[in-house]
From TrEMBL:
Organism whose genome encodes this protein: Trichogramma brassicae
Keyword Heme tagged: no
Keyword Cell division listed: no
Family matches, as Pfam families: Trypsin
CDD domains assigned: Tryp_SPc
GO biological process: proteolysis
Family of the protein in this entry: Belongs to the peptidase S1 family.
Superkingdom as given in the UniProt entry: Eukaryota
Protein name (record): Peptidase S1 domain-containing protein
């Protein structure tokens, strides 16, 4: 089984969107994308990366503009197990408390092992103002979106889920980006906000 690094979302037969930190300091050579399987050990379609485009303003130290595109070759073949996801509209906004779904093969605890099975969990959206208060002044920019069970914890994305999709009403609204701990009752997960970066995606892919 190839080494799992990150998740991503299919937005066309040629393009995958993921987090920039997943492909930081990497080139396309040697990167493969697997689609159409809910297990890491399953078959699915495996295609090679042709090109990686990281957001020009991505900065690791502040995790802003944490988005990248992977162009694959040959293109993915769409069928019952492989389909693109619609991108969130430019004008969309989200009510705090709305439940979005995040999926991935990440660990259950920080010291745990990557899951062989694709997992999904629903997490409530939190306003950026509340998120900034919880992170005690760390800059939560307009290109970020927060979600999690504040005061409760127990359900969240974690290591290995990075770059994976946050979905609401069938549209991609976020990508797993960063956080403190996993499933902490104090700190929600922070995601890359797709609506704020739709123009960038369009400028690179035409989508």
């Amino acid at each position: 089984m190839s080494r799992h690094r990150c998740g991503g979302a299919i937005i066309s037969s040629n393009w995958i969107v993921t987090a920039a930190h997943c492909v930081r300091a990497m080139n396309a050579f040697g990167i493969t994308v697997k689609a159409g399987s809910t297990t890491l050990s399953g078959r699915g379609q495996v295609v090679r990366a042709k090109q990686i485009i990281r957001h020009e303003n991505y900065a690791r130290w502040k995790s802003d503009s944490d988005i990248a595109l992977i162009q694959v070759n040959p293109p993915l073949s769409f069928g019952s197990n492989v389909q693109p996801i619609d991108l969130a509209d430019f004008s969309e906004d989200y009510e705090p408390g709305s439940k979005a779904s995040v999926t991935g093969w990440g660990v259950f605890t920080r010291a745990g092992e990557i899951s062989n099975y694709l997992r999904e969990v629903a997490v409530p959206i939190i306003s950026n103002d509340e998120c900034m208060e919880l992170y005690e002044g760390r800059d939560i920019t307009e290109r970020m979106l927060c979600a999690g069970y504040v005061g409760v914890g127990g359900r969240d994305a974690c290591q290995g889920d990075s770059g994976g999709p946050l979905v609401l009403s069938g549209r991609l609204i976020g990508l797993v980006s960063w956080g403190i701990d996993c499933a902490s009752p104090r700190y929600p997960g922070v995601y890359t906000r797709i609506t704020a970066l739709r123009s960038w995606i369009n400028s690179k892919t035409g989508l």
